[in-house]
Structure formats: C-alpha cells, structure tokens
Amino acid sequence: MATQTTASCTGSTLLQPISEIINLPLDQVNFVACQLFALLMAVWFRLYLHPSKTSPFIRHVVATLLGFYLALFCFGWYSLHFLVQSGLSYSVMVFAGLEHMHKYCFIVTLGYLILCQITRVYVFDYGMYSADFTGPMMVITQKITSLAFEIHDGLTKREGQLTPSQKYLAISRMPSLLEYLSYNCNFMGILAGPTCSYNDYMAFIEGTCYQPRHQENANGKENGKYKQSEPSPKNDVISKLCTCAISLAIYLSLCKLLPVEHSIDDDFVSSTPFHLQIIYLYLAMLALRPKYYFVWTLADAINNAAGFGFNGYNKDGSPRWDLISNLRILDIEFATSFKMFLDNWNIQTALWLKRVCYERCHINPTAATFLLSAMWHGVYPGYYLTFLTGIVMTMAARAVRHNIRPYFLVSDSYKCIYDVITWACTQVAISYTVVPFVLLAVGPSLKFYRSWCFCLHLLCLLVVLALPVKSRRGQVKEQQDGLQKDSLQDNQTEHNSTDNNCNQKDKAT
C-alpha cells in the first residue's frame, strides 16, 4: 500500500522506510511527521522567540520560513501554489480600489482554489488522499478572503455601519507583505489551519494577546484579576495530545471494520432490516469522525504550544485556550439539533462562512452559505449533494424547533424526552446527509438515497411546507419592533408616573 502511493506523493521521500514499515501512504506519514515537528518548533518558538525577547519582525520571518519548509516537505513544488494564490490576492488588495477590493479578492482567491481542485481531481487524477495540496489552500483561501473583508470594513465603513463582531475584526491599515505571508503561511497553521482573524494573529506576534481586548466572551471581573499574568498552555496542550492519541487509535481500529461503502452493498441492503441499516450507518459515521478530531485537535495543540489561542479565563480562574479551536467533541456527539452539530463542527470554517457570506448576503443567506461551502470544499459531486441536502435539513430542523419545541419546555421531564428524541433524529439526519460527502461520486450517493427511498428528503420537504418559519431578517425585525414597543411603553409609564407625581404635588399645595 505504501509502495503504491510513493509515486503519487509529491513531497519528500525521506520517510519512505517508515511508510513501508507501518504500511501507511507516504503522504500521510509526511503530514503527521511535519505536524509533530511543528509541535516541537512551537514550544521552541514560545520559549526562545518570546515577544519580550524578540521583535515582531523576527517572529514573522521565522514563522513564515518554517511554514514554507513544512509545505515543501509535504507537497514539493506544488507548494508554490500557496505563494501564487497569496501573491495574486495581495496584488488585488494593493492595486484594486478599496470600494470593491474585497469582492475582486474573493473571486480571484476562490477561483484559483477551484481551478487547482479541478486540475487535481479531473486532470492529474491524484485521488482523494494522495498529496492533496489543495487542503492547505482551502485554509489560505479563508484567511485571504477574511482579511480582504476586514480591510474593507476598517477603511471604508463608519463604526455605525458595522456589527460588534465586525468592529472587533476591522483592520485600519494595509498589512505589509511579510505580515501578510506570515499570517497565511506560518508553520503553526500551514498544513491544517485552523483559520484565525488577522487581528488575533498580530496580537499573538506582538505579544498583546493576553490583554482584555481578546477576551470578549470571558467574565470581565476575572479578566481584570488575571489579565497581567501570562498563563502556560502546558495542561491544555497535553490534554489535546491525549485526545489526539485516543482519536487516532479509535479511527485506525474501526475505520476498516465499519466502512460507509458497505451501506450500499446490494446483499447488505437486501438482507438487513431497515432499522439495522440505520444503526450501521450511525456507527460507520461515528467511526469516521475521529480522523477529523485527530487532525484538528493536533493543529489546535500546535498553536497553543506556540502561545496562540488564549481566550481569557473561566470563572474559576483557569485559562481558556479555545480561541481558534475547531471543534467541541462532546457537543458534537450529543448534539440535539442540526444547528448545534454544525456550530460545533469545524467551528472556524463556520465562522468564516458566517462573516463573509451569511451576514452579507441579502438573498437567501442560508442557501448561499451552503453553496459557498460546497464550492470551497472541492469539485466532487458528492459535496454538492451533501450541502443541497443540508439546506433542506436545516430548514426542516428550524421549523421543528420553532413550532414543536415550545410544547416540551413546560417541564424538565418533557424537555428530557424531547432532547433524547432530537438527539437520535439529529444523528440519523447528519449521517444521512453526509453519506455523499464520503462516497464522493453521484452514482453511489444516489444508490444510497434510493435504498432509503429518499425518505428524509421527502420528510423534510413536508415539514417545511407544513410548519413555515419566518425568515431570519423577519425575526430580527420583529425583535427590534418588540424592543421599540417595550421602550415606548416604558417611556409612557415613566411619563404617566411623572404626571401623577405632579398632580399629587398640586393637590398637596
């Protein structure tokens, strides 16, 4: 197996003997080795290139050069695409007018990513997991487009036109080329991310990331008490590395025992009762998720080891290192709604989609967000089937939550029953939706849905038609009208109270 993948691995062959010994593809061995090397470099970076000892310039240079080295080791000359994509986008930022710079940059960056994905899949036919150089490009695409929108917000809009989140992220000056490359290609996130905001990254480089500005979600009192200290990430890094080890062990032991492809096997479909097919599908998806847990948690640990990711303090005074975390495993596995699952899975990508699409799209933002997510993920047809299904699932889940859930909030026992039912429904719905994402091709994906008679598609359509839900903007407008009405009532009450007091004084006089 390892020998067969050597030819398609575009990176270094230095670890070929290890690849043959453990019988894993060389590109996967290179990736894990580079991430472990990045973890060691992160500890060194934090201890010996601390902001108190080193200038931001040196930290930028070292982080960028290490990032390029890891990219070359994993992907060979294909890593030049990272520079080309970044260079084209930076040129657009510099030479295009500020008014439309963010739109042009978005089109150029996403277009170059899609072009590379098309050539990788349909021209050179590298397959899914061999030297996928477009994986890092996906993260770089998020960073570049986020940066373009944040520059546009900071240089062309007044504060009153921005949401609180946009004010926090807005950038008031154009980054230098070194700062830009360091943000996109630093060694901590070049291979697996996660995406972070430019302001947070610059605060990390300059050593100001422990100030209250970067602790929005923490309690202000605790921040005031602990803000002068610089907490150690050691405990969180060790905890996340343990999570990585457990996730990797579970994935390697179960992924071959419970392949998703078995769910479309003719003998399995014809001989297995439908309820057992549902259980098998859930277990197969459960066995697949630890792979993502391993990759994203390891990437988070690398950033934390370098001192990046501090997000304030908990109420008990313990530091939080989840500023750029990409997932919350327990919230995923025990999610009781489609939205709760998506909010805790690939968190930084969800935030990127929200900031560049959902909050800025004026026509059906939900559908536009799912479409952008499909385009960003790649050109496999299965991605589009998954995200089109996700649109219907999201609308149906929203309708159920708004119309059915209030009836179960009358008591704790009713709510517990509701949570159990919605947990089971959410896990089945997620598994059903994600099957094309795993199978990739149209034929196998439609074969699976036909074996289920498209039942969840039809059920969701019926729910959406039977239980209409107001649009997001309609809900926001209704809330604003309600607040204005409450404000007017309060003013009227205060006015009446004042009149009564005046009348009483007149009578007393």
- How many strand units? 0
Q: What's the SSE pattern?
A: HHHHHHHHHHHHHHHHHHHHHHH
Low-confidence stretches: 1-7, 126-130, 213-227, 476-509
Total number of domains: 3
From the N-terminal CA to the C-terminal CA, the straight-line distance is 100 Å
Assembly type of the shown chains? single chain
User: Rg to the nearest angstrom?
Assistant: 26 Å
Inertia-based shape: globular
Which range does the strand content fall in?
under 5%
Structural class: mainly alpha
Largest sheet: none
Mean pLDDT, to the nearest integer, reads 86
Fraction in helix? 55-70%
GO molecular function, one term: acyltransferase activity
Pfam family, one: MBOAT
Transmembrane segments: 29-49, 61-81, 101-123, 382-400, 420-442, 448-469
Membrane topology: Multi-pass membrane protein
Question: Can you offer a commentary on this structure?
Answer:
The chain is an all-alpha fold and 509 residues long. It folds into 3 domains: 188 residues, no CATH class; 95 residues, no CATH class; 161 residues, no CATH class. The chain is built from 23 helices and no strands. The longest helix is centred in the last third of the chain and has 37 residues. The N terminus and C terminus are likely disordered.
